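Tutorial sheet, problem 5. The two components below are modelled jointly, 858 residues in total.
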Amino acid sequence: MEESSVQQAHVHAPPEGFLRKYVFSLDHKMIGKQYFGLALAAVFTGMVLSWLMRIHMVWPLAKIPGLDLISKAGAPGGIITPEYYLSLMTMHGTLMVFFVLTNAPFAAFGNYFLPIQIGAEDMAFPRFNMMSFWTTFVAWAVLMLAFFIPDGPPISGWTSYAPLSAVGKDAGPGMEYGMSLWGISIALFCIGSLLGALNFIATTLDLRAKGMTLMRMPLSTWAWFITSCIALLAFAVLLPACILLILDRHAGTSFFIPAGLVISDRMQPHSGGSPLLWQHLFWFFGHPEVYIAILPSMGIVSHILINSMRKPLLSHKVVIYSMMSIGFLSYTVWGHHMFLSGMNPTSALAFSFPTLTITIPATVLTLMWLGSLYGARIQINSASLFALGFISMFVSGGVSGFFLAQPSIDIYLHATYFVVGHFHMVMGVASLFGVFAATYFWFPKMSGRMMNETLGKLHFWITFIGTYCIFMPFHYLGLIGNVRRYQSFVDDFMQPYIGWHKFITICALITGAGQLIFLFNLIYSRFKGEPAPQNPWNATSLEWTIPSPPPWNNFGDKHPVVYHDPYQYGVKGSKGDFVMQDSPEQVIVSGD
Amino acid sequence: MGKLLAIVLVIIALASAYPIVTHMFVLPQDISTHGHAIDEQIKETMLEAGASFIAAQLVLAFFVWSFTGRKEGSPLKNFPGGAKVLVVAAFVLVGTEILALGVLGQKAWATVYFTPPSAGAIQVQAQAEQFAFYFRYPGPDGVFGAIHLDKIDEGNQNYFGLDPANDVAARDDIVSGQLVIPVNREIQLLMHAKDVSHSFYVRELRIQQDFVPGLDLSLHFTATQIGRYEIVCTQLCGLGHYNMKAYLNVMSQQDYDKWQKEQSAQ
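Model answer (structure tokens):
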């Protein structure tokens, strides 16, 4: 058979030895877990950074014990300086956007489950796969190094606007070596992501099992596939942008620096560059990046929701086409980050319409989820709670996009907390809800043990209510004109609202602490959890046809053959109300 | 637990709407001639986005309430009309919504960006630098002196690099740390960045525009209320960003003329 001969070519020998098994592994499952571990380290670091920022914002003189050991200049005596606030903010954004929101839903779960869901034994290029993880790991290490050098981390935000980011030490603390580390780290991250995206695409197109047509792929796999197509184009633009930035900083070029700049009383030896060029390149990546973060969660949530509803979504195809349209449109809207950047004001209108148009496929998706809940038999567990919470968050974060897509409103709301609330909810929290749902759903398969449901539900309630308490007030504060990226609010008009900022800080501390329950649950269940059966959720896709955890070559010596669409729920099957994808039995639709 | 989720969703929807409905957070007073259109647009959008938000959360809550905890054998149903009805609804409802918002919203944008300043507009040059704004008026001769980058000397308060010794036009230029303007007169702000990107944001004026190094931009507006308002930088510009602010001082025409005279005399 053709499929199996293609597959044979990619099979590698069972891994032997500690290094090959756990460190330089070629196994997509181990690589997926490595990505997950890296994302976990990054998300807890990022969370602590946000705690520090929130604490400094409302209690600027608070002493943080031990912080002066990390940065003497940034936190003398443990008291955070205003400059160090900007460092914390830059690192928080960079860690969260790149190392959490890109790594966790896409690289981690995609690596682990995409090959299994299509019936493959591994990725198309296992060695590339190992390389993409380790490149990403080095990228993370280079970024973290910035905390420990005397210069400190950069202060120019995760968007690193030029010329501030391009002129070197004249731009302030952290902008000499810290900023260079940022540039190198993100360039490496791009390389890792490009390799990963190529691998996902090749695997999806070439390694599907017999009978696994494209339309029979589960929605999670579809989402990872579409995401890798987006990532391939997006990171291919950010990589050269980072290279140009590094050249401007170290090789005397002037891609992003115009003539005639006097910074720190020094005439800058540059001419001919354009700060807007950086913004265009950055946002050409930056906006699709938002969808790189959220699309995998859309697919994961669909996959989990269907399982907990015990019936398929109203239309498999509509969901796929909506995700594709979102992916395509994501390339036409980057200018909405630049309405007030000095870009030609006519182009603002040209960017505004596709931005508003993206609401249509997003609404279609939301209605597909909502409409499918009607008449379902929804089963509540930690995974489905997070999946339902995702819908709520996605809507809440999505509707504020209506405001920001309009250039005239952006004149007032740009650079306020309204924007911060918007993107935290829709790309941050919603996407993380997808990751949490995925963890509770797939942990049994990955570890062979069930997670603790009581702790999982407790984690859900704290996170769900907590994140609303944190990010809803951001929108209100934005409406009164509370600007972002300020370390304190000393203005008279802000005085009546300091209480709200204190409330947000307290909620952030509690919600963050709630994440420790998740961490504990992960570690505890890994060792002490109840042993997981092969198919604990009575699910239909191929990952549930193999043991938990799967053997090194996924399907053993068998080559799975697929007979059905991915979601045969609510039918009369031999095992219950579902028929698995690889089961040759006929699907009998149960009467209404 | 499904029922609990439904209740929490309803509480979230209502609690989120409460501060908006009760006007706990209102936009600051609008002191511009064009701001009204922006405020209207925000109100209109709040209505549509708010309705979508509440409707979606309530429907989610209702379905979660109704369809959790059902017995194993209870029949599955499909949404009446299926996917087609919902796709059509999304296209029609959201399509109209975005067309309406998109088209209406251009009005406010157009008054700020597509209408040139009137011939009588007062020209003021604004320079943004780490971490201050400086404003320059051409003085009685109506001509700005040329900028000489090598003459910039912060210590001697020569922020613009003027050369009054050799440049006649520069001699009567007025340089100020605050933006002083007469009420009900159109102002054309000529925006110049000395070092990195900054932004000019006055909440009450409903104006926000980046300063871009190497790109001299111009902005025009009319303030309609006498008073003192805060100008803040909203583009991250370095370690003192949080401290970068100035004041907009809107005066009566008489007071403005007096101020100009006083400044010229110095």
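Marking note: The mean pLDDT of chain B is 93. Full credit if you identified this.
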